[in-house]
Design brief:
Elements: H1 3-15, H2 40-53, E1 57-62, H3 66-77, E2 81-84, E3 107-110, H4 117-121, E4 125-128, E5 132-134, E6 139-142, H5 151-155, E7 159-165, E8 170-171, H6 174-177, E9 188-190, E10 195-196, E11 204-205, E12 212-219
Parallel strand pairs: 1-12, 2-3, 2-4, 4-7, 5-8, 7-12
Antiparallel strand pairs: 5-6, 6-9, 10-11
Length: 220
């Protein structure tokens, strides 16, 4: 059965001219990834380059260094209010000696669903995790899972600090990413800070989301 036969058969079935159509799987022999999927280090390097190419600020650290790096990046930006999605690991917002980042005057705003767009517009930063990251396209995917929060959290604040765990959250390509995502969940696909060039091809950032995207690539 060709693709033409399959399509025409579905049309006849929909019109009631025939019985049910015998579904035949179509051959999908195309390459699912061009990046070296079996080389985690190479995948991480590719993700780093493509994120930076989209003008994201990319940093690397180990799991043990993560709390200090997050606190340092928030301090370097001068963030005083930080939105925190439900399920964000407690240790991420603690300094090396166990103190919360808020000890230096940072107000942490846990999201219980009551943070409005107006309130988030006045928030300096948001810290989230992610569902996964795609190396070939430099894309980070959020699906409102634990530590990611509502789409509002990652769209309204001007600064988004996102943590990607490697290698478990890094995939080579979009075809490899899709089977790992639940299509019923609300997804946000992020490739760099929000930007548009609609007016005279002049790039303007921060139009439809954060003006600044910082990504922490975390290894063991």
């Amino acid at each position: 059965m060709t693709s033409r036969d399959l399509i025409l058969g579905r049309i006849r079935a929909a019109l009631g001219d025939t019985g049910t159509v015998d579904e035949q799987p179509l051959p999908r022999g195309y390459v699912s990834a061009h990046a070296p999927a079996g080389d985690p280090a190479a995948l991480l390097d590719l993700l780093h380059r493509n994120l930076a190419d989209y003008r994201a600020l990319v940093h690397r650290c180990t799991e043990a260094e993560l709390p200090v790096r997050i606190a340092g990046l928030l301090a370097a930006r001068g963030s005083r209010t930080v939105a925190v999605p439900a399920g964000l690991p407690d240790g991420w917002l603690a300094a090396a000696d166990g103190r919360l980042a808020a000890a230096d005057g940072v107000e942490l705003l846990p999201d219980d669903g009551s943070l409005t767009a107006a309130r988030l517009d006045a928030v300096d930063s948001v810290v989230t995790g992610c569902a996964l990251a795609i190396a070939e396209t430099g894309t980070i995917v959020l699906d409102a899972g634990p530590g990611q929060g509502r789409r509002l959290l990652s769209l309204v604040p001007d600064h988004h600090l996102c943590v990607v765990r490697a290698p478990e959250q890094v995939v080579a390509s979009v075809p490899l990413a899709l089977p790992r995502l639940d299509p019923a969940r609300p997804q946000a696909w992020i490739s760099g800070p929000s930007a548009t060039s609609d007016i005279e091809l002049d790039r303007v950032e921060g139009v439809h989301g954060p003006r600044t995207l910082e990504v922490l690539l975390v290894t063991a």
